[in-house]
Hints:
Blueprint lengths: L13 E5 L3 H13 L3 E5 L2 H10 L4 E5 L7 H10 L5 E6 L4 H9 L4 E4 L4 H17 L3 E4 L2 E4 L4 E3 L5 E3 L2 H12 L5 E2 H7 L9 H12 L5 E4 L3 E4 L3
Parallel strand pairs: 1-2, 1-3, 3-4, 4-5
Antiparallel strand pairs: 6-7, 7-8, 8-9, 10-12, 11-12
Helix pairs in contact: 2-3, 6-8
Bound molecules: calcium ion.
Calcium ion binds next to loops.
Amino acid sequence: xxxxxxxxxxxxxxxxxxxxxxxxxxxxxxxxxxxxxxxxxxxxxxxxxxxxxxxxxxxxxxxxxxxxxxxxxxxxxxxxxxxxxxxxxxxxxxxxxxxxxxxxxxxxxxxxxxxxxxxxxxxxxxxxxxxxxxxxxxxxxxxxxxxxxxxxxxxxxxxxxxxxxxxxxxxxxxxxxxxxxxxxxxxxxxxxxxxxxxxxxxxxxxxxxxxxxxxxxxxxxxxxxxxxx
Length: 229
Ligand code: CA
């Protein structure tokens, strides 16, 4: 949707597993970590909801039958809050109706228990490929920039709305973390060569006051790069 591509040098895919069967959780998280995923686990629907709303995941794997909040309801709530992570629904039920319910709720794929680990791996690889095509957040350390809402999501889940210019500046920095941008290049690309020579510094100041001092890092003598939250 956005023209930016996520830079992912050796970045693992981030996967959230929401499943209440502890034995299965142990098996799956070991296997998936072995395949290089960074795995977080939630043992009930409420915890899953909290994690998925506050951290950026590439893929969520959700068991349909969950305590506290049913898997379908969890997925509906995530979609209603614009969480776009690819979702794979697990279920012990295999009827056509259950499958349709899951897809209606916003699942991208569906797997019936008991399933083969290789089958799960293959489905997840396919979903991760698709997740890369859909960049809707850019990470800022432990927080992220929500491109759809134009808000910064802090590590504790709090959201900070940005003005159009603040968003444009932070988006350029976050799209290329690690890269040092000169004031001149930012003034040109973000502010269309606005006459004021200090406009970049002014907006960096706004971002820092609004979000946190650490969100933008000054590289002395050169310019700015993305910081961390
Ligand atoms: Ca269950």
